[in-house]
Amino acid sequence: MLTDTMKKHNYSAGPCILPQEVFEKSAAAILDFNNSGLSILEISHRSKDFVAVMDEARALALELLGLTSKGYQALFLHGGASLEFLMVPYNLMKENGKAAYLDTGTWASGAIKEAKSFGETLVVASSKPENYNHIPKNFEVPADADYLHCTSNNTIFGTQMKSFPEVNIPLVCDMSSDIFSRVLDFSKFDLIYAGAQKNMGPAGATLVVIKEEILGKTGRTIPSMLDYQKHITAESMYNTPPVFAVYASLLTLQWLKDQGGIAAIEKINNAKAELLYNEIDRNPYFRGTANKEDRSHMNATFLLEEETHAPIFDAMWKEAGISGIPGHRSVGGYRASMYNALPIESVQVLVDVMRSFERKMTGGL
């Protein structure tokens, strides 16, 4: 059932659903930001009003992650997570050094590809032979690697790391699709990056959280725009930042804090995932694609048992006002992205459609 405040049940994997109040406050700021008589789209990034936005967004990101006063810096940069595939080895892989990577999906393999341009890149484990349907476990990480890179959640294949390796080298994680969605000891990570558009804000900004002490050890000459230290020194203002995307991300972070923070939203996310996966497992007309122990709570991937039934099911979920559940073009099937702002009521709508589809296929029994 559609509500007055949400025209569609938005399961898009990114750009994704955001809280309704973020849309409303963003819309107001486009017309008049802080009663300045100027739009957020036209104010100077050096203005007092926007500097305050950037400062609060950076501080609030660290607060929610529990990393305030622990030697970390938060940055909002351009280029999406894909640029971080390049920036990480530039800033962390030593000349004539090597790095270790865990290959769990398309985005992890993209990071591996970029790292190979900088030096020896060791893939410590990969689930590619099984079409990335699980997270590899019990792998060894070379103690002399400059860092270990992993991807916490894999949007395309619907897997998620439930634990992380204990290593004595810097641990780097691409958290683009599950940042701020569950409680972790974020101090285990030396560098976290996340494209905003999957769980934090609109496309255009990338959050990077860095333990500053790991920088400056590569012996490389790093181009200025790709140098984390230069962005830290400039307080994320080395060049014109993505002003609107940072502002909308701040609004989302404020909304998350008002909900009770990460611990509170994790309970809701767990309930949403349980509701949908229970139906996938119960309903004889559907099956999940990821191994159960590694299923993502952000991106549930599933298939119809009989692909010929797709036109019927597709017509039903469209009629219910559901949007964005077709699977990634590279794998097909269906993908229900259940990011922080998706209400559990929307998940119930999808479950109801799946149950109605079952009744239809069995002649209403």
Give the SSE layout.
Blueprint: E1 9-10, H1 20-31, H2 48-65, E2 72-77, H3 80-92, E3 98-103, H4 106-115, E4 120-126, E5 148-151, E6 153-154, E7 159-160, E8 171-174, E9 191-195, E10 206-211, H5 228-233, H6 243-259, H7 261-282, E11 286-288, E12 299-304, H8 310-319, E13 322-323, E14 334-337, H9 344-361
Parallel strand pairs: 1-13, 3-4, 3-5, 5-8, 8-9
Antiparallel strand pairs: 2-10, 6-7, 9-10, 11-12, 12-14
Describe the model.
This protein has 365 residues and is an alpha/beta fold. Helix content is 35%, strand content 16%. It contains nine helices and 14 strands. The strands form four sheets. A seven-stranded mixed beta sheet has the order 2-10-9-8-5-3-4, with helices on both faces. A three-stranded antiparallel beta sheet has the order 11-12-14, with helices on one face. A two-stranded parallel sheet has the order 1-13. Strand 6 (153-154) and strand 7 (159-160) form a beta hairpin. Helix 2 (48-65) crosses helix 6 (243-259). The longest helix has 22 residues, at 261-282. It is globular. The model has no long low-confidence stretch (mean pLDDT 96).
